[in-house]
Design goal:
Helix content: 10-25%
CATH class of the largest domain: Mainly Beta
CATH topology of the largest domain: Glucose Permease (Domain IIA)
Strand content: 15-25%
Largest sheet: 8 strands, antiparallel
Shape: elongated
CATH architecture of the largest domain: Distorted Sandwich
Bound molecules: zinc ion
CATH superfamily of the largest domain: Glucose Permease (Domain IIA)
Structural class: alpha+beta
Radius of gyration: 20 Å
Order of helices and strands: HHEHHEEEEEEEEEEEEH
Distance between the termini: 26 Å
Number of helices: 5
Number of domains: 2
Length: 274
């Protein structure tokens, strides 16, 4: 048997466990999981008013395609400063949520931000930031989902208790009631009960990746909501199929189980120590 804090996803035991906790946040699953494409398709076409008049000659216009993310566009168009620069330059047409851009939206590329964009604090030298997990925010736009936790079961730990044959996330061992935070800004694509995962939140981020937080005792966000980095999304717990309280955390390429990436590597790539 695995040590305390591990969770399993067997084919048989999840249902009865779900019934036991169905009173907590059980209404939020009415919406189907909606991928980025579906969400974009449902949005009305954007007006291309924007800033043609103020753009310098070097700027060009890019029309957002189905499935685009700011990160993809920034890469493909070689935007120096990446998606954050692209977002800063087009914030007036994109709005407050960089993870939601609609097909047909006209982005200006190669333009100085019309309004004085906030200078990123991340330009400080790397050498001056050895603080590790103690800091809440990293300046990279990413943070740990829970502070002060030890790592329980690591990603890709093999075992028969997981339906995929390995652990699809990383477990942070924390007592029930610990504050769980969004690792970065994004949009909540689902919040509610999900079988063996118990109370679960899935958030889509500007780079197109999804973060998943499972087994929570309570949720404080709902589907469709925009969240900022470090915002509390709920409290840790032991809902779903678990042997003890912990946060099960995944990074995925889609909102769904089975599209997992190494979550620790992902956080480290974004300047978060764990
Ligand atoms: Zn887990």
């Amino acid at each position: 048997m695995p040590a305390k804090g591990k969770h399993r996803r067997p084919k048989s035991h999840g249902f009865a466990r779900s019934i036991a906790v169905a009173g907590v946040g059980g209404v939020a699953l009415a919406l189907p999981l909606m991928g980025a494409t579906g969400a974009h398709a449902a949005a009305p076409a954007a007006h291309s008013v924007a800033q043609a008049a103020v753009a310098p000659a070097a700027a060009k216009t890019y029309a957002v395609k189905d499935g685009d993310t700011l990160s993809k566009i920034a890469d493909a168009q070689h935007v120096s400063g990446g998606w954050k620069k692209l977002y800063a330059d087009n914030r007036s047409v994109i709005g407050g949520d960089p993870s939601v851009i609609r097909p047909g939206l006209k982005l200006t590329i190669g333009q100085q931000a019309a309004a004085p964009a906030a200078k990123s604090p991340a330009t400080a030298t790397q050498a001056s930031a050895p603080k590790a997990a103690a800091a809440t925010a990293t300046g990279s736009g990413y943070t740990l989902p829970v502070q002060g936790a030890s790592i329980g079961t690591a990603y890709k730990t093999a075992g028969a208790m997981w339906s995929s044959g390995y652990h699809t996330g990383v477990d942070f061992v924390v007592p029930t009631g610990t504050s769980i935070k969004a690792i970065a800004a994004g949009t909540v694509v689902s919040a509610g009960l999900d079988g063996a995962y118990g109370n679960e939140v899935v958030i889509q981020h500007a780079d197109g990746k999804f973060s998943q937080y499972a087994h929570m005792s309570s949720l404080s966000v709902s589907s469709g909501q925009t969240v900022t980095e470090g915002r509390q999304i709920g409290l840790s717990g032991a809902t779903g199929n678990v042997t003890g309280p912990h946060l099960h955390f995944e990074i995925r390429t889609t909102p769904s189980y089975g599209s997992d990436l190494d979550p620790a590597a992902y956080l480290r790539e974004h300047g978060v120590s764990l």
